[in-house]
Prior knowledge:
The structure is a single chain. The protein has helices at 16-20, 24-27, 39-52, 72-87, 91-97, 104-116, 119-132, 136-145, 152-161. It is mainly alpha-helical. The protein folds into two domains: 10-117, no CATH class; 123-158, no CATH class.
Amino acid sequence: xxxxxxxxxxxxxxxxxxxxxxxxxxxxxxxxxxxxxxxxxxxxxxxxxxxxxxxxxxxxxxxxxxxxxxxxxxxxxxxxxxxxxxxxxxxxxxxxxxxxxxxxxxxxxxxxxxxxxxxxxxxxxxxxxxxxxxxxxxxxxxxxxxxxxxxxxxxxxxxxxxxxxxxxxxxxxxx
Length: 175
């Protein structure tokens, strides 16, 4: 082994100090909350953060964290990811998902499950919000996440429903 080689027991050679120093709020600039439509953005930011820092294995289930109990670096990174989750979710969600002994994978599964497991209830909530506000793109993405189809015609008709009368097509007049 060369003197420059990593000495971490983590088989993926990620330096826990570098991971702990990441400003998660700069990388995930949204707070996940069940009462609004932040899930798609929150999940997307975290997915990119995991990919960028070679941390996907902590949340995707490819590595059994129980087999990593003796790998101190793995544990430090896993705990850091859990802290990230806790500081980027609402207090209500925190109280819903917090549980002693959970690893980052368990937390990731719980948080995602809250927004995708009860698809019918979530679909009704999202569709109601979809038709009641102007954040159509975000809501359409979240509806697609749970398997609901939102085509361009629906997006366009929903968007144009609330247009000012001055922008509407003028009526045809007879000569």
